[in-house]
Amino acid sequence: MAALANQLPIGLSIAAVLLLIALGLTFTFGQMGVVNMAHGEFIMVGAYTAYLLQGAVGGQSLLVALPVAFAVAGLLGLLLEWSLIRRFYGRPLDTLLLTWGVSLVLQQLARDVFGAPNVQVTAPAWLVGGVDVLGVRLPHNRVFITALAALCVLGVGLYLAKLPQGRRMRAVVQNRELAACSGIATGRVDRSTFLLGSGLAGVAGVALTLVGPVGPGLGTFYIVDAFLVVVAGGLGRLRGAVLAALALGFLNGYLEFWTDASLAKVLVFVAVIAFLQIRPQGMVALRGRSLG
Amino acid sequence: MLSVSDVDVRYGRARVLHGVSLEVPTGSLVCLMGRNGVGKTTLLKTTMGLLRPAAGRVELEGEDITGLPTHQRVRRGMAFVPQGHVSFPQLTVWENLQVTLEATSHRQASAVEEALAVFPTLRPLFKRPAGFLSGGQRQQLAIARALITRPRLLLLDEPTEGVQPSVIDEIELAVRRLHRQAGLTVLLVEQYLDLALRLADSFVVLDAGRVAHAGPVAELHDESVRRLLSV
């Protein structure tokens, strides 16, 4: 029983990582329909940003890295949308190949600049160690990641629900032609959606430096998980992404406990495929008379 | 106000409009008529910039707007209510109106009040997602949304189609008032002949992607014109 309780925070922290890496993808893939294979590389860019800042800023670089990585990865995403992707909307296979190509270029670029071996970001002192809650050991870095994920979801939720920019974004996703007819500059909204989605990937990258080394292949390691969460949650649904991340996180945590890490990954994958056979639209589907 | 000249529109290899020309004088209400599939909606969408013509020009008050993006046409005073009572289904009624207001250049909240004065039945529905409204309610919302942009030229694509009779009357009354009292110029696509006769000053009939007839509304009684409209 104690062992089962011990797995709870582990499951939660896996869920938090899944949520962070998938949150940006719910915008670029879920909302805009771009099969964005470069999402993983925006995560990598965020991670390397944290690595670079550690040399430049030192001590509290992690907190500086979060906004900087958001800006760097976000601007890169905006550039990608403006230069390439906007010419390929409505052609999912082409955008898949296109963004995959971009992802390969970015990986090689990282290899050229930082070298092939992994680098390490040292966590600040206040993230080393852990705290005991009801007999369960919670590592500080896991608590931090979970809080960061919660904060990001809250921020994104408020942005979409309350701010004019978020309203515009939802309007464009729901009916692009009608949005244009309402006077909304849809091209500009597309760019800001990409900026937001890619920026969130950058933030996820910073968080990942706390749980593992940083390498050029960091993104490829996480991209499948990110897509799994978005698809299982229901395309473009924030609530769906949260639910899916939690479900997959806990499932992964407990399966890892009962079996081993690689078998757990396989079983989670099988579970998602089985789930999508029963509910292809994902956990949270759109409701209403017309989907327009 | 609006002048469309020699417009060709293609969907892939299929040519839908063949050299269509159309004039909508300032202060007029022109009714665009014709059977299903003759290109009425295509013409409105081209006018609004949602489709690009392969040839021809679209002018608004003498300015060539053929290549202008849709949202900039809205800023120049054009508004379009598409066919089929379209809305942003997951946005509430209030959000549907608000998102439009925020995209206007005037940003005056009084525009929302003016639109609600035309369709007061929308006010109690503010918190409902637009996707849950009835067809008639959504059509009123769609027209209200167009009015918020404070247009000088309103394009309406079959506003009474699939709408319950009581709401048809309200929409007719609203269009009549906007045209006669507020001086709004209107280009209306309408299949319902009686309504066209009551509202329009002049009409244009499309047939197979060409202008088959254009003239003052009295000519709608002509046998040759009626034949173009009969199914």
UniProtKB/TrEMBL annotation, chain A:
Family of the protein in this entry: Belongs to the binding-protein-dependent transport system permease family. LivHM subfamily.
Ranges that cross the membrane: 6-27, 34-53, 59-80, 143-161, 194-214, 226-251, 263-280
Protein name from the UniProt record: Branched-chain amino acid ABC transporter permease
Pfam families: BPD_transp_2
Originating organism: Saccharothrix coeruleofusca
Mode of membrane association: Multi-pass membrane protein
Protein localization: Cell membrane
Keyword Transport (UniProt): yes
UniProtKB/TrEMBL annotation, chain B:
Name of a matching Pfam family: ABC_tran
InterPro entries associated with the record: AAA+_ATPase, ABC_transporter-like_ATP-bd, ABC_transptr_urea_ATP-bd_UrtE, BCAA_Transport_ATP-bd_LivF, P-loop_NTPase
Keywords assigned: Amino-acid transport, ATP-binding, Nucleotide-binding, Transport
Gene3D superfamilies documented for this protein: P-loop containing nucleotide triphosphate hydrolases
Residue ranges constituting the ABC transporter domain according to the UniProt record: 2-231
GO molecular function: ATP binding; ATP hydrolysis activity; branched-chain amino acid transmembrane transporter activity
Claim: ATP-binding is one of the keywords in the record: yes
GO biological process, one term: L-amino acid transport
Annotated family: Belongs to the ABC transporter superfamily.
NCBIfam families registered for this protein in UniProt: urea_trans_UrtE (TIGR03410)
Protein name as catalogued: ABC transporter ATP-binding protein
Organism field: Saccharothrix coeruleofusca
